[in-house]
Amino acid sequence: MRYKAIIFDLDGVICHTDQYHYMAWKRVADDLGIYFDETINNRLRGVSRMESFEIILERYDGKMSEEDKIRYTAEKNEVYKTLLKNMSPADLDGEIKETLDELREKGIKLAIGSSSKNAKFILGQLGLGEYFDAVSDGNNITRSKPDPEVFVKAAQYVGERPEHCLVVEDAKAGLEAAIAGGMDCAAVGDAVSCGLATWNLNTFSDLKNVISSEQ
To answer: For residue 73, which of 97, 102, 98, 53 has the smallest C-alpha distance?
Structure first.
């Protein structure tokens, strides 16, 4: 079997928290009098919290100290975590859970590779707290995608070489990170149109066909 491990981005692949991110950033932007809409929010996908704030601050009329940047990003995260408490196992799509179970039955290691520092909390809310063999997230990396660090560490955590890992991503930066890390990648959602992926998935369950074809 070519792929011994599959590394999944979390947000936009396993679950969808875009709206929660948007609501939290919108509250901060409104407090600062900065224009912020969903189009701008889409630029933040797969980007670290501080880098996301820098994008929002492109429309800020003034200069902000590093201390204030830290304070506002922390405030955003507290709002976001409060909103995340609304998540439950009911938010996990049945097709995704069924596919993950089948992949695990085939003996494939499953890992998360996410820039989010809240990845483990979100997994817990979804009922997947102890499900994955490894979680590489914003708490153990210093560089965000498209840097491959988060995926390289995930591969190390599951003990597999990059060429034996498949990354599943919904964002261009994530696909670029996988390629930079020497890994094949499968695109879902908006990432399909990038033309960068080894595999393009119409639905999450198409992963089963990818694995079957590589056995």
So the answer is: 53
Measure Cα distances from 214 to 2, 77, 109, 129, 164 in Å.
6, 40, 15, 29, 11
Q: Any catalytic annotation for residue 9?
A: yes
Nearest Cα to Cα of residue 21 among 97, 74, 81, 63: 81
Rounded Cα gap, residues 8 and 111, in angstroms: 6
Give the span between the Cα atoms of 66 and 144, in whole angstroms: 19
Q: Whole-model pTM?
A: 0.87
- Of 157, 114, 106, 81, the C-alpha closest to 14 is 114
Active site residue 101: no
Gap between the Cα atoms of 107 and 130, Å rounded? 17
Residue 145: both structure tokens together: 């995608």
> How do residues 164-194 score in pLDDT, each as one tens digit?
999 999 999 999 999 999 999 999 998 999 9
**Pairwise CA distance, residues 137 & 112, whole Å:** 7
* Dist. CA 60–CA 47, nearest whole Å: 19
Of the residues 11, 137, 170, 184, only one is catalytic, namely 11
Catalytic residue, from 9, 137, 170, 184: name it: 9
Q: Is the dihedral of CA 120, 204, 13, 94 positive or negative?
A: negative
137-160 confidence digits (pLDDT tens): 999 999 989 999 999 999 999 999
Beta-carbon contacts of residue 9 (< 8 Å; ≥ 6 apart): 46, 112, 113, 114, 167, 168, 169, 170, 171, 174
